[in-house]
Design a protein that fits this description.
325 residues; TIM Barrel; 14% strand; 6-stranded parallel sheet; alpha/beta
Length: 325
């Protein structure tokens, strides 16, 4: 039986239910917890987060369960004991990440680390646990640094992630799908099949024209349409926003071309942003309030919606070890 690590224990992939594959309880840059302008007490964070997760749990009841994949890596505000408390309180399965959103968010200790050290770090967090929390990571986060180009540290992190994925079976998701050729080369060199990698944020506004979709699809990679809700129609849209209809049409093109098994979708929302104000009104529940109604209006049936949010996600998250380094 395929298994998935959640913060409250390892469960069957069949128990995941509806999965939001790329979300955040609270994401921030290193040091944001010390910022006097945006610092939040634990009580404020809790008050902002619990209602959103409870609503998510309520929205997913037709699928029997709710799973929230927490995409916050090391150094970005990850708080595993807090995730455990939230999961216990709301009934939402939470899958925690190891890895980094990008090399430029790694603190110097990790920035100077070798591929071997980083590999051991990721493997330990997936197989033994994160710190002294007793909770195991279920997915590995990697990313392209600012400037849309992979730096040498990014490449070391990607290589360590590939090795850790082979050993543990945990999948990988990326921050941005740009400059993917070095990543594909690394995965090939390390013997990692690309269906174990979700190239994320392929739908955001700033990445358009910078993603080689044909090469990613030919390699068997999965494509992440995971910024649903960051719409330019918002009163104060983020710089990575995109017109809602444009994003929807992009996504529908994949579905109508028979590529449904290679795409995953999410909102990349922050329940309680750290060190920045966040995007007002944007939550994981946008998926139910806007995305699913839009898809149904376009003739996407329940079977395809289940494929996207239940079957694809369960297959992707299931631990699938390949072998050693």
């Amino acid at each position: 039986m395929t298994r998935v690590n959640t913060v409250l224990g390892t469960i069957s992939a069949a128990e995941l239910g509806f999965v939001a594959i790329h979300e955040h309880i609270g994401y921030g840059m290193p040091g944001c917890e010390l910022d006097s302008r945006w610092w939040k007490t634990p009580e404020v964070r809790y008050e902002e987060t619990v209602p959103k997760l409870r609503k998510f749990h309520e929205n997913t009841q037709p699928w029997g369960a709710a799973t929230f994949v927490e995409a916050t890596g090391i150094c970005n505000g990850r708080d595993i004991d807090y995730y455990k408390s939230l999961s216990d309180k709301t009934g939402v399965h939470i899958v925690a990440s190891t890895g980094f959103v990008g090399g430029d968010t790694a603190l110097p200790f990790f920035e100077r680390a070798s591929v071997e050290y980083l590999t051991d770090q990721f493997v330990h967090e997936i197989t033994v646990g994160i710190g002294n929390t007793g909770a195991k990571a279920g997915i590995i986060k990697v990313g392209v640094s600012r400037g849309f180009k992979m730096k040498e540290l990014d490449k070391r992190i990607y290589r360590a992630a590939a090795r850790a994925s082979r050993i543990t079976g945990a999948p990988i998701f990326t921050h941005l799908a740009v400059d993917s050729h070095p990543a594909l080369d690394i995965f090939e060199e390390e013997g990692l099949p690309c269906h174990r990698v979700l190239f994320g944020h392929a739908d955001d506004g700033v990445s358009q024209g910078k993603i080689d979709e044909k090469v990613l699809l030919a390699a068997g990679a999965r494509i992440g349409f995971d910024t649903f809700g960051y719409d330019l129609e918002l009163p104060d849209p983020p710089f990575w926003g995109r017109h809602r209809r444009e994003r929807l049409e992009h996504f529908l093109r994949f579905l109508r071309e028979g590529l449904v098994k290679q795409v995953l979708a999410s909102a990349d929302a922050n329940c309680s942003p750290l060190g920045w104000p966040g995007v007002k009104g944007h939550t994981v529940n946008y998926l139910f309030e806007q995305s699913l109604p839009d898809l149904r209006e376009e003739g996407i049936d329940d079977a395809m919606i289940d494929q996207l949010f239940v079957h694809n996600t369960a297959d992707f998250l299931a631990l699938q070890p390949i072998g050693g380094q």
